[in-house]
Amino acid sequence: MKILTHLSFLAVFLLSSLSASAMDRVLMDNGWSFCLGNDSTWALPSFDDSQWRRLDLPHDWSIEGEFDRQTPAAGDGAYLPTGIGWYRLSLQGQPLLRQANGRRIRLYFEGVYMQSTVYLNGTAVGGHPYGYSGFWIDITERLLPGRNLLAVKVDNSAQKNCRWYSGSGIYRHVWCCMDDPSAIDDPWQLYIRTEQLYGISADGMKADSASLRISYPGRPDEVRMFRQVRLWSPEQPTLYTIQVGGLSIEHGFRQIEFSTEGLKLNGRPYLLNGGCVHHDNGVIGAAAFDDAEWRKARQLKEAGFNAVRTAHNPASETFITACDHLGLLVIDEAFDGLRAKKNPYDYHKLIDQWWQQDVDALVLRDRNHPSVMAWSNGNELFERRKIEVITTSRKLARRMRQLDPSRPVTQALCEVDSIFDPLAETLDIAGYNYLIQFAERDHQRCPDRIIWQTESYADSAFQSWDAAARLPYVIGDFVWTAIDYLGESGIGRAHYASDPADRGEHWEGVKWPWHGAYCGDIDLTGLRKPISYYRQMLWDDAPALHIGVREPDLYVDSIICTKWSTWPTTESWDWPGHEGRPIQVEVYSRYPRVRLYLNDQLVGEKVTSRQERFKATFTLPYQPGTLRAVGLRNDMTPGESQTISTSDRPASFALSADTTILKADGQSLSFVEIQLVDAQGNPCTKANDLLNISLSGPAQLLGIGNGDLTDTVSYAAHVAAGQNSAQHRLWHGRAIAVIRSSHKAGRIKLSVSGAGVKGSLSISAKR
Question: In terms of Cα–Cα distance, which of 269, 271, 260, 258 is closest to 204?
């Protein structure tokens, strides 16, 4: 039996609490000049960039383009433009030198996609080819007392280089960091781990004491003892702040044990209900605004997930921090492919020279985060049938364990058989992609193998949960995917038989106008699909209930599902023209039985036990009105209920913002969900009207869109054009607008019109 114990902690920067001797960080996102194109003279301080566009980071220029079937990145890159772009920033050296006061001055780029070269005063001083890794540049000896010119060339012209939408540009934060190499000031060199937890309570919520080991290069390890600690878990993500040298560090005390007898978190059995996510933020592209990254983590939590896999690249630092604070366990993935190419210019071009720098960048940045439970060194490797895959995987895993011996290493395998056992043996946990049906067979052959399903089909939700619930050596599942994403165009779609271009899977020919993946539990606007509620219900055995209505086959045309899709199912009771014809209603329930009513008339009562997969399906003739499902307890008394109603004519827009107060810092975002409703507040789910959106006040309309991944109207072309208004269609009566604050305080108004009605929402920007 193989047992791995994981005790780890979170490290984040808390600038407000740093002392004068601590590492200082200055955000360098504001005031850049930008231009698409390429000219070597653009690196020179003498070049006049006064005609360039002025902008603040994070920035993704691809999302600001038009969808075009002929773009080099094609469907993998969401049919959006790539190319080469330059950024320039003027720096006054004297204030930085004065603030540094003899300390080292470094630039920290959290992520630039891709092939970046950084120039200071016309001289190349650094850069990085892999667009998902953060990197540091020491400019201590190069910074002039007067004006300095920082220029960054970003080359994303070699296509294809990614199997999903990458975005283009300096899409994550840039910092100027001042630290003392002789002090404990470098967060990537600090490593904190718990030696032992003592006296863990029966509920796994606290421990009597804990011993903490702190390591820093060139210094003896320090051990500290803590009494009466509250433990970190997804249900209780408790963090403690501890001073270590010049750094103020947040910690989450926890213990994870991985074994063939099951996963234990803080001494208690635990199952992982996980989702895979790509790094984009929907209609704003790859731009990693803090608010967008936190929103993504909140969406996962609200959908019932307790774990996430960062497929197939390092996520932003902010996203990992959000997982720490909100409570999500993370499989932190480094790469998609390794030596064998999946696309002509992907990581196989970089691996020989850059693999160790990129592994180091991932592990050193994230090893102190309590949310991170495992490292992944790859995904569905094309060279898996070659002997070299074993040496490559072993080499990457060895480096990961060297930098962080407390966490297991995994990899997502898409074939499992005795021929692949040597590859699986390089790992601590074997990731199975769509292969959970072989777990019992493989356990007979390899009884020490710990398994989690690193990818699963959405429509296999019950089978995936059932395997983890029944088999102790299967410790969880990660569905592909938790959220819809851009690129890998056409995966997850269900289509009509009359759409010949849609035949086959997403890799079998061009699927234009699809420009994204519809396999997520949550769509691009943030709407949870019925499959999301069903999945949450499986993993949480508390009484719950939800309705899903299946689109009738031949309502428009015959429906064809693909591998990653589910049958088109919504919460709509708007089916004009289908009166009197059969329609199927699904009720997902953890109650023993459910009843379904239409217009207060009982349709039927059915059992919803495990044998029925906690699902009841009713077939009834469609009539407009109100559908109501009721859960029944064991004593047959009514429990929870849900209703959905046919909508009347549109009456107003229901505008819902995740925040109505922004910080006037140029970084704060408000995501506004737009829903067309009737006079009773029922969603008008058949409305696809053209929507006019405009914004007034000190803010920017950063992006607008809907959940329809065949709608090829640009999400953000208006941003590049300097406009604060745009048009987009509703889809199922729904759309989303994203508002970005400026550096000015004031009142902001979002105005919406379409379908003969109007609506508005006020937001405040405050300093």
Answer: 269
